[in-house]
Structure formats: structure tokens, C-alpha cells
Design goal:
By secondary structure, the chain is of the alpha+beta class. The chain has helices spanning 14-31, 78-81, 118-134, 147-153, 181-191; strands at 2-5, 54-60, 63-72, 97-105, 138-143, 157-160, 165-167, 170-178. Strand 2 and strand 3 form a beta hairpin.
Length: 210
């Protein structure tokens, strides 16, 4: 299941968010060698992990196996403040546009070949379910150009914002990817079920007065 962590419920996920930050560090610093992100405590946290960020955690058995972060395009985000050179046109901004960042999956749960792993499919399905329920229909992504065809095959409508450029030693292209219920249906078809992937929000416990 995908759990959505926001400022309203962050206190319920403190230990799991610690796992998420350490997963980010293992993937982006130790694997990808993005040493600018290295932290002595092994937790990858940046200036965008603030009160405007939405964190999505794939949790199984109390373990965070996958993670992604959503940032509103109406606030500072990676494309606007860190990688503006990837956008050769007008910066996409709107309440219905959010940026998808820091996607990562534990190595043992990643895809092999062209097929999305169950964790990857569930993370993408979580974005689409959340977007359809929240009025978000487009995401900004900075990604390897090899992902372009895969997203189209998943029924995202993808529009490059510029040409690929070298970032952190690899080719990266910025795109917008729009989605609708057909995208969700395609992901469900590939997954083999139509079950909702977003967990129900955690409810606060009300203690009876003694």
C-alpha cells in the first residue's frame, strides 16, 4: 500500500520517514554517486522537504520499500530552483501541476527488464489515484530519456520541456506527463487487479477521559 505523508499526519510516520530518508541516501548518494547530496548521518534531506511536500511511502511489513515525493509547481521546486536550464520553454506552473521527485525503490524490489516491478507500478498508481482525487492531472519529471517510451506505453501524455542534458553524470530530460483514468486503467491492467493502492488516512486515537 501507498501511505501519503503530509504535514497533517507527519507525526504518525516519523520512524517510517527516517527509513525513507535513508533509502534516498542509499539510492542517490551511495548508488548514483550524487555526492552533493551526501549527509554524515546517512539521511538524504533537502530544502524541499518542507511543509509543502507530499511524501508517498510504499510500506510492506513495516518496511519502506519504495518512496516518491510530490512538490507543488506553485512553490519553489527542483525544476524552478535547481535545474531551470532543463526547461527551454515557459516553466509549467499551476495548481493542477506537481513535480515528481526522489523516486526510489529498494534494489530487491526493482524491475528486471522492461516490466514494471509491483512496487514501481504501485508507486505510479499512487500518483494517479492521488492526482485524480486531488485535482492534479500533470506531473513534472526530470528523468533518463529512456523512460519516455515507457511512460507513453503506460498511457501518460508526455511533453519534453527541452533537450536532454548531463546532470550528475547521466542524461536527464525534463518533461510534463499528464494522466487521466485511462492511465490508471492501464496500470491496473498491467498489475492484474483493480484494487485501490492508496491506504486510508490514519485516524487520530481519541482517549476517553478517566
Amino acid at each position: 500500500m501507498i501511505h501519503i505523508v503530509s504535514p497533517d499526519n507527519h507525526h504518525l510516520y516519523e520512524e517510517l520517514m527516517e527509513q525513507a530518508y535513508r533509502l534516498r541516501h542509499r539510492v542517490f548518494v551511495e548508488e548514483k554517486k550524487w555526492m552533493d547530496l551526501a549527509k554524515p548521518d546517512g539521511r538524504e534531506i533537502d530544502q524541499f522537504d518542507n511543509e509543502h511536500a507530499i511524501h508517498m511511502l510504499y510500506i510492506d511489513g513495516g518496511k519502506v520499500l519504495g518512496y516518491q515525493r510530490m512538490l507543488p509547481s506553485t512553490r519553489p521546486h527542483l525544476l524552478s530552483d535547481v535545474l531551470p536550464h532543463l526547461c527551454e520553454d515557459v516553466l509549467p506552473i499551476g495548481e493542477h501541476i506537481w513535480e515528481w521527485t526522489r523516486y526510489c525503490v529498494e534494489p530487491a524490489h526493482r524491475e528486471r527488464g522492461r516490466t514494471l516491478s509491483p512496487v514501481a507500478n504501485t508507486l505510479l498508481s499512487g500518483i494517479v489515484e492521488w492526482g485524480l482525487e486531488s485535482g492534479v492531472e500533470t506531473i513534472i519529471i526530470q528523468m533518463n530519456p529512456l523512460w519516455l517510451l515507457r511512460l507513453v506505453q503506460l498511457h501518460f501524455r508526455v511533453m519534453p520541456l527541452g533537450l536532454p542534458q548531463q546532470v550528475g553524470g547521466e542524461d536527464v530530460v525534463a518533461v510534463t506527463a499528464s494522466f487521466d483514468r485511462r492511465t490508471l486503467a492501464r496500470l491496473q491492467e498491467m498489475r492484474g487487479d483493480r484494487q485501490r493502492v492508496l491506504a486510508e488516512p490514519e485516524k487520530p486515537v481519541h482517549r476517553l477521559a478517566s
